Amino acid sequence: MDIERPSGDLKQIAMLCCKQSYSLPKVSVIVPAYNTEDYIASSLHSLIAQTLKEIEIIVVDDGSTDSTASKVREIAGLDARIKFFSQSNQKQGAARNRGIEIATGEYIGFVDSDDWVEADYYAKLYEAAKKNNFDMAVAGIVKHKRFFKCYNMRRIGYETASDLRQKIKLCEDKKHRFFNIYNKIYKSSLIKDNNIRFSNEVVCEDVMFSMKSLYYSDKIIAIPNIYYHYNFNVNSSINSKDIDKRKKKDHIKAYCDLAKFANEHNIELYDRLNYGESYWKLVIKVYKGLYKTKYTLLGLIPLFIKHNDESPA
């Protein structure tokens, strides 16, 4: 874990820039950007420095009110592989969807504008996916906070999966969240042929995108010793305290949509994926989902499950 954030220094970036664009890039990297003027240059630095040169970098500015857009334009003028677009503020889902429509690569990847990736990140993911025609390739995740960093997801060897429940398990991080979309590449035909898109105007836009990607994929592979570096930015849209209520509401809706999709497609979810809301009642912690509500003692000892009126027959 000795990989540090690239500097974002324009002189260093200029030395790495490519004057050639690729009509058939191997990977299209979609970067939604919103008010990340302190991070966007270093994020793009990490993409420009990729050992896999046959990429396109699609930056969609989602109505930033700071200098994010001007910084991207300056860097885009140095590297022909960068495509820059602006739109009114519609949240990350809409920005990513626009990037998908624009993407021409064989595979598609996502990088948030305050994060970064290692220099051989896309080379390793592409090689692993391409070798045996995998629909998705999965990397590890290093989470960076102010005073420390830690592995949020890692693999010690190559692992593959074709069964849906195993694919979900293969993509889970330490908190059993399978819907991290940024530490993967997806075959472009998987996304476009199945019309897989992000939910618009919500915070938890990646839950259904991840489920549908896994459901419609044939086989996926997770590879060791390569990492996506996630920056825990307290001012980002997902971590900002001023949207806690909306985040909880969107979180509940995302898990309800997940339950509906599973029911419609006869998918047996892991029990932990059936609950989108939790709250305390004295020493009883309650987990509420679309179809059932689970009551536990201190969140640890299961007491009983109540089936809700919406439960399918």
Unreliable stretches, pLDDT < 50, 5 or more residues?
Answer: none
Whole-angstrom Rg: 20 Å
The CATH homologous superfamily of the largest domain corresponds to: Spore Coat Polysaccharide Biosynthesis Protein SpsA, Chain A
Would you state the CATH class of the largest domain?
Alpha Beta
Mean pLDDT: 90
Principal-axes geometry comes out as globular
Task: Figure out the total of helices.
Answer: 9
**H and E string:** HEHEHEHEEHEEEHEHHEHEEEE
CATH architecture of the largest domain: Alpha-Beta Complex
Q: Which structural category fits the helices and strands?
A: alpha/beta
Describe what this molecule looks like in 3D.
It contains 9 helices and 14 strands. It has 313 residues and is of the alpha/beta class. It has 2 domains: 10-231, Spore Coat Polysaccharide Biosynthesis Protein SpsA, Chain A, CATH 3.90.550.10; 241-307, no CATH class. A hairpin with a 3-residue loop joins strand 13 (292-297) and strand 14 (301-307).
